[in-house]
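Quarterly update from the structural biology core.
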Amino acid sequence: MNTEKRHVRKPHIGKPPLVSWTVQSTLRDDVADPAGYTSFIRTYTEMWPGRYGRLAHSIRVNDWDQAMDAALSLRSSSEMLGAVNLARLALAVEQAIRSRRLHAAGMLLPGLKSCGEDTMSVLLRGSKPAGQQHAGNRA
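Predicted structure, tokenized:
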């Protein structure tokens, strides 16, 4: 009987990019109008403070229905735009809300806010950040 321990290396999974440039490219192609695409990005970034504020407020006052609506809105719009990390965090908040754990959802808000602010900065710059030129394209 072989008692030798085998060390299996787990693949290194890096932090996903803030923005999937593959999704951005597809969106740009789907919109087919540069002004429309730019307007879409601008509207999304302008709506971020309100979306986050509505989510945070509804969690703070224990309004389950409004919290769920705000989390769903943030997640779906972030997925459509390719805001990968923000969509994942919004999903985690959504799952906590769905489980009626508003306190747990509230604990996720600081990270969500930070990620959202970073994501809006990247989107407003409109270019790929260093380090996301290749590997981050597949997110």
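Residues 21-126 form a domain with the Four Helix Bundle (Hemerythrin (Met), subunit A) fold (CATH 1.20.120.160).
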